[in-house]
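Aim 2, interim progress. The first record below pairs a target sequence with its structure tokens.
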Amino acid sequence: MSSRRRVMAVLVGAGLMLASAVASAQALVAFPRSDVEVVTADGRHHRFTVEVATTPEQLAQGLMYRRKMAADAGMLFDFRMERPVSMWMRNTLMPLDMLFIAKDGKVVGFKERAVPGSEEIISAPGMIRAVLELNGGTVARLGLATGDRVVHPIFAAAP
């Protein structure tokens, strides 16, 4: 085997090991599942099964590296108290809609169709308790609006 081929074999092997390590690290962060319901001002109910992010590791990873998500799925980021929140789409591979939610469960703002991989800072409009991420286009498809309510135990327990 020529030295060039040996070098290439080593580089390819190292690349595969690195990819495997990254995949393993991603798999280490587990998310509990829960149901949420978005209730619109006109009384329509939309149910989603979500993964709930509460730990620093879960909040940091979010939906990174996911290629797809079921239409009725999402992720609920619980910051445990109202505070200013900024998000981004780094390492996120699919477009997402973000619902910014106050401590009482009221939707106070949106970011629709956030661009995959973008490092643009997406800031919530004021103090919020949580962010619900759904597939891009869900807000428009369901006709969601500010003032809608998200029903989940974290909002019932809000101080």
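The second target in this work package is listed in the same format:
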Amino acid sequence: MKADTRTSSRKTMPNIWGEGVLFAFSGLDGETDTQSQFVATAGTDGYDLLIHTPTRRLLKLRPAEIGQVLIATGDVLLADTAGGEIMMTYADWHTLIGRLPEDRPASLEFVDDGDAHKAELIVRMEPCSDGSTLTITEDCTNGDVIVLLLAADERTWSLAFGKHAAEATNRAISAIRLDWQQVMEDRLSIYNKLPELSDPARARLLKKCLSVMKVNTLSAEGSIDHLWSTPDRVPHRAMWLWDSVFHSFAMNRIDPDSAWLFLRSVLETQRSDGMIPHMSKVDGTASPITQPPILAWGVWENYRYTQHRADLAYALPRLERYMTWILANRDSNRNGLLEWMIEGNPLCRSGESGMDNSPRFDEAMLLDAVDFSSYAAADMTYMSLIAEELGDKERSLRWSRQSAAMSVTIQRQLWDEEDGFYYDLAMDGSRSKVMAVSGFMPMLLENMPAARTGRLLALLHDPQYFGTPLPVPSTAVSESAFCTDMWRGPVWMSTNYLVITGLRKQGKEEEANKLAERTITAVQGWYERYGVIFEYFDAEDKMPPPACSRKGPPLKRYDLRKKIATIRDFHWSAALIACLLLDVQTPMKRTAYIRNSTL
């Protein structure tokens, strides 16, 4: 029996339902509520949903046969089975609605997470006068209720969250009366904003990327006054600094006004001293460290799409205060190069760098960091551009000169002529000769000597260093620490995107395109196998992402409550792959790490 829906004829929609697929209401469609933790992921069996409330629930949706998945996005599932269609979608942040095959009713239960006994849990079933049935799951300890309302036909259902049973029940009753086909169409309307790529597999991957972008976009809540983005609704939930910039690059192509709000929400977390935290939550708490300073790049790139000068005027003083704080607080030896904060946690020596457990930081000592200094020098160039666009030539010249000075220092101090690579510098002046992807970041700068670009390319191609089957490894193969654990070898979309951008900046278009194509192909392959976009990937392109380590070896069974494994439906991976896919379609709209005039 074919599903009789207006969406069943859609071509090239994501159609793989794999364990860990994020499933939640998007802030692009209305209000969200992160503190409720009413976010689901695809389970291990059938079309089950694992709901990540403080005490988790499992919605069991298990048809007699899986059938054919027609659509699998972050807020719509549609499949065709012998018993009829199976469908579910979000009517609101707190409510799902759905349809089931014949004779396969849904069920709802608590998940035994090992410590579930610590909570007071109540499960009861109540028949209704119209023949429908309510299953009520109440967590008295954490103060939340989720109800499943199954209609008399045992095919139509709704699932709703509330702070008490009456609230959840009323939401479920209201939702079950909705036109589910229209709700589903509303959720899918955003995909009409994408160009249709000629390759069906690539078109499907692009829409999967947009699905991940959408599900990880949230509405204003608590201390965050505007639309904002998160790396992942589970397990991270909060807002991250440089992640948000990468998210904005792709959102510029879909909805540049929303992309601006991603950036503004981060800018508004700025402390009175100018520092911007690397992570902020809706309850107003924030981390004491920052993250790679690429916000000015994000603001300028967004302006290329919106042409809203008022946004530049809003951002510039905040960007200036932030860069002033960095220059005052992250250059302890006052040599014009910047040092990441080093932490005591051996599994995360430098969360501030974004490369938490890189072997660069194994010695737990301050370093004049090549990536930090490169990001800051480049961002000062963008601050100069912003000031120039606003007609303030004096400010523009000041930031241009500071950028040039730091760029010159990077070239003089951090280049190793013998190895043909850029290294961090220890406080005693010796080079910290750990080869990491950070050494390619000076390609983002204006004053990169052509001969040095050539030598970096040689290492990029050499299988003994960075020429892995899937480049660019976060740590060179030659390093004894090289493995599949996060920043100790795996490939990340953020750094690949930066290397691609740097290659284009240095006029190496063909090399950039080859790396972009290899990157897209690898992500596509793992998506087609697992149905999700992963956080990072094995540089040898052999070990599946779930088998890669993440600050220690993975568990045999995927369980985020016991150990965070390689994260699934990771926002910047999806956003940056979307950028690369769209660059092929519309190369003139590529993210630009380019100044209009030389320094």
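The chain is about 35% helix and 15% strand. This observation will shape the mutagenesis plan for the next reporting period.
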